[in-house]
Structures are given as structure tokens and as C-alpha cells.
Amino acid sequence: MSSVAVVAHKRKSLGDGLGALRRVLAERGHPAPMWFEVAKSKEAWAASRRAVDGGADLLFVWGGDGTVQHCVDALAGSPVDLAVVPAGTANLLASNLRIPTDLHAAVDIGLYGARRRLDVGVLNGKRFAVMAGVGLDAVMMRNASSELKDQLGRLAYVWTGARASRLHVPTAKIAVDGKPWFHGKASCILLGQMGNLVGGLVPFPDARPDDGILEVGVTTAQGTLQWARVVARLALGHPERSPLARMTRGREIEIKLDEPTAYQLDGGARKPRRRLLATVEPGAITVCVPVRTQR
Questions:
Q1: How far is residue 162's CA from residue 166's CA, in Å, rounded to a whole number?
Q2: C-beta neighbour count of 116 within 10 angstroms
């Protein structure tokens, strides 16, 4: 029988709450899992490491994208399987892997589902499972506070995105696998392990999370009108057709900016930086997925 641990962001909710998670696990034969509740997503890293050190071989993470990202960062390279209970707003990893926002179904996927070995991206030393971004999308994530997301849900990202689209656009130099690739104004730089963002937007329709490659996208859009054109292409799943976007792929991406610029990892905002280095760790984590999940 698996040794189960739970890392739970106690401000996040799904179904009837954490009490229901305890009951469902008990019904499935796990009445006393290792249990760690955190008040902030950044505390999930230490809690996950305590679970690893305590001998867990299956870790349920209850929370949003930030909590999941910190658990991914902590579990990479370990033998512990990760099971996501999507209790956040966007739930990027869960939605890309088709893990439903249903408590019983998510728990059953963790206990009885398939296991899939996935790559992780690494940006400035921190791991992410779905996507990292520099520029507008990072500002959008940063400004979508917990309170705003509680009030508006996913519309919080639309609100902050519209405001961020009017901000100053930095100049970027980007090298991919050691070769110069882009030099110019870059309102948003995306690095993807998986294809889908919030709201049905698909910046990387051909992305696979187990091919050892990072998808790279840059948009030069400035202002609300140009951003609306880019978003329309993303919604249709054809970002490469926009004259305001460039796409490529690689294993090492170096980004140099003319001024400190905000960035994000799986939706979690980070402090502005002028230089960033992204790489890939192939097969770094094992995630519990529905039996038929392929992409």
C-alpha cells in the first residue's frame, strides 16, 4: 500500500473542503496520511520535502498553480508520485493533463490512475511544469491578487491583462541553444512545457511535456488592439500565423533584457530580473494522470 502524504493550501477550496478530502482518503483505505497545511504557496516546498523525508511515495497537492509549482520544484528527481487536486483558479497542470475539478475523481486518479514521467523546465534555478513567462503575462499574474481572483475567478486575468497591455515594452536579446534568435521589443516571452493557458488559449499547440524540449514564443504586440489580435490567434490555436509573434524550440534559452522585468513560473509571479536562463530536466517528475491522458 502506498504511503500517502497531503500538502494543502488551506485558503484554497474544492467541493466540501479539506474535511471531505480526509474522508475520501479514509474511504479509499488511507485514514492517516501525512498531512501538511500551508498558509502560503511558497511554504509548500518545505512541506513537500518533509513528506519525501518522511517516506511518502504518493503526494497529493491541494491548491492552485503556485502551490503545485512549489511541490514540483521540491519533488523533481525524487521517487515520489505527484497527484494534483485542482483547488485553484486556473489549475494549469491539471487542465493540461485533463485532471477534473472533482474531488472524488481527482483522488481516484491519484490512487488508481496511470503514472506519467514528465519533463520540467528550469528558469533561474526554479522548476516549472507548464509554462514560464517574462513581461506582460507575468505582470498580469502578479496583479491578479488572491482577493481579485476570489471575486472574479478567471476574469481577474482578463482585467489585469487589459491594464498590463498598456505598459512599457522592454527590449530583449534571446539566444536559443547558444545561437542568437531574437533581438527587439518583446512585450511577452513564453517558455512552454505544455500547450494550454487559461481561458482556452493555446500558445503551443504542438508542445509535449516529455520530449526534452522547451517551446519558445515571443510577441511584439503593444497596446490593447494589437494584443487583442494576438489573443484571437491564441484562441484559435494558431499563434504562429500572427505577424506579431515568433516561435521556436530549444533546450537552453538565454534571455537578456534592457531593464529589470517581471517573470512568472506556472502563474506565480517573481521579482524582476534582467537576465534569465531556462533549461530542461527530462523525466524529472512522475504525475498521476487519467488512464487515457496522452498529451
A1: 8
A2: 18
CA dihedral 193, 102, 200, 219 (to 10 degrees): -40
Distance CA 142, CA 269 (A): 5
Cell, residue 289: 494522470
- For the chain, give me the number of helices (H) and strands (E)? 9, 14
CA distance 189 to 167: 15
Dig out the grid coordinates for 216 from the structure.
519558445
Please write the tens of the pLDDT for every residue from 185-240.
988 898 999 987 765 677 788 889 999 999 999 987 776 666 666 665 655 566 66
Beta-bridge partner residues of 263: 134, 270
Residues sharing a CB contact under 8 Å with residue 277, sequence separation 6 or more, in sequence order: 123, 124, 252, 253, 254, 255
Extract the C-alpha cell encoding 126: 526554479
pTM: 0.85
Classify burial at 146, counting beta carbons within 10 Å of its beta carbon; exposed 0-12, middle 13-18, buried 19 or more.
middle
Q: Do 110 and 237 form a contact (C-beta atoms < 8 A)?
A: no
DSSP letters, 99-128, are --S-HHHHHHHHHHSEEEEEEEEEETTEEE
Beta bridge partners of 245: 219
Contact predicate 244/219, CB 8 Å:
yes
